[in-house]
Design brief:
globular; 7-stranded mixed sheet; 2 domains; 9 helices; 372 residues; 13 strands; alpha/beta
């Protein structure tokens, strides 16, 4: 009996290690995910170049999604603003990837696109949406529209459903479309119920829920910071200012980990927004939640739901592989989800760095097999 059990676990482990993606000829659809690409960086250009090439090869059966924070630091100002052209230039390389894609492409909002969560947020979101639509000639490229929260469901294929939400909308404390607006969903409760309804209606479909904010992460937005930050806290705001403040330096990370702000997964409002969505996702057998916000690459699995964080399109920050994380990397890059005729879905994480600016595959894993 003991020998049988040992043999079983050896085989199980061997299958996990030796598992490979199906042959490319069996690929049915690919979804590319790039978050937080809204800053002028040479690494950003390398990420976009690599993604654009893969999208071109993937062809019509593909979608690329930019996961928010498309323009740092405060989104797009109105025409006539002296910084308008400079800030348009942060967005247009992303839009160019979409325009040149044989498949479809979408941009969703992040907190920085909402004027860094400040008072002019709604105006900035409307400006960015209008510019993206005019630039691409696609009325559906920027979702949800006009500051509405969503959810918006998009049928990518007969069995792959994309659900887009504006996760900054419920966190935004200033003017935003609400009760009496033209938005289909006008309160947080309506938004959450809308997501739950879509999930219930698509139990036999493969589901991708796309937002800017993550539900799980092991980076700064979970209060996880590097040893350097704890000991030399002034290096974050002031660069190379290495003044050791070991006790004082831990106060801010501890606050972010225990209490957090609205942009952190530990924040009270953030949890009120995300927890019902998480519970809805856990009722679906083939759910994938994708996000940016954390400037890192992560694959996390909780209660059979796959959480993909792909927020290092132009910036990187500290992240740690711990607890539920299967993968965590603080490098510029993007993720790709591949769907196959077998019903399998796989995730890939592609990284670009100074040694290999043309990029390389750093991690791949099966997400699920079809339940049909």
């Amino acid at each position: 009996m003991k020998k049988s059990l040992i043999a079983f676990f050896i085989l199980l482990f061997a299958d996990e290690v030796s598992g490979q993606q199906p042959d490319g000829s069996h690929l049915t659809y690919s979804v590319f995910l790039i978050g937080d690409a809204g800053e002028y960086k040479s690494a950003r250009d390398d990420v976009l170049k690599l993604a654009a090439e893969q999208v071109r090869i993937a062809g019509e059966k593909s979608t690329i999604i930019f996961l928010g924070d498309n323009i740092y630091q405060k989104g797009l100002p109105p025409e006539g603003d002296p910084d308008r052209k400079y800030l348009e230039g942060k967005l247009t390389p992303q839009l160019d990837v979409i325009i040149n894609s044989p498949g479809s492409g979408y941009i969703i909002p992040g907190n920085h696109d909402w004027y860094k969560s400040k008072e002019k947020g709604l105006a900035a979101i409307k400006e960015q949406g209008k510019f993206a639509r005019d630039f691409t000639g696609d009325s559906e490229v920027f979702l949800p529209k006009d500051g509405c929260p969503g959810p918006i469901d998009v049928k990518l294929t007969e069995d792959i459903i994309l659900v887009v939400i504006d996760s900054q909308w419920p966190l935004h404390k200033y003017n935003k479309p609400g009760i009496g607006s033209n938005c289909r969903y006008q309160t947080l409760e309506e938004m959450q119920k809308g997501i739950d309804d879509i999930i219930k209606e698509n139990q036999t479909k493969k589901l991708i829920v796309a937002a800017h904010h993550p539900i799980y992460t092991y980076g700064n937005h979970a209060g996880i910071f590097s040893f350097k930050t704890h000991v030399f806290p002034l290096t974050d705001p002031f660069g190379a200012l290495f003044i050791p403040l070991p006790i004082v330096g831990s106060i801010y990370p501890i606050y972010r980990k225990v209490i957090g702000n609205d942009q952190d997964i530990t924040g009270k409002l953030n949890r009120a927004v995300m927890n019902p969505i998480r519970k809805s996702l856990e009722t679906h057998p083939m759910a994938i939640h994708v996000s940016g916000h954390e400037h890192a690459l992560e694959h996390i699995v909780s209660n059979n739901v796959n959480y993909i964080v792909s927020g290092s399109g132009s910036k990187t920050e500290y992240v740690r592989k711990k607890k539920l994380a299967k993968y965590a990397r603080s490098e510029n890059g993007f993720s790709r989800i591949n769907f196959y005729t077998s019903g399998e879905a796989w995730v890939e994480f592609w990284v670009v760095d100074k040694v290999k600016p043309k990029g390389y595959l750093d991690y791949e894993a099966i997400l699920f097999q079809s339940q049909n």
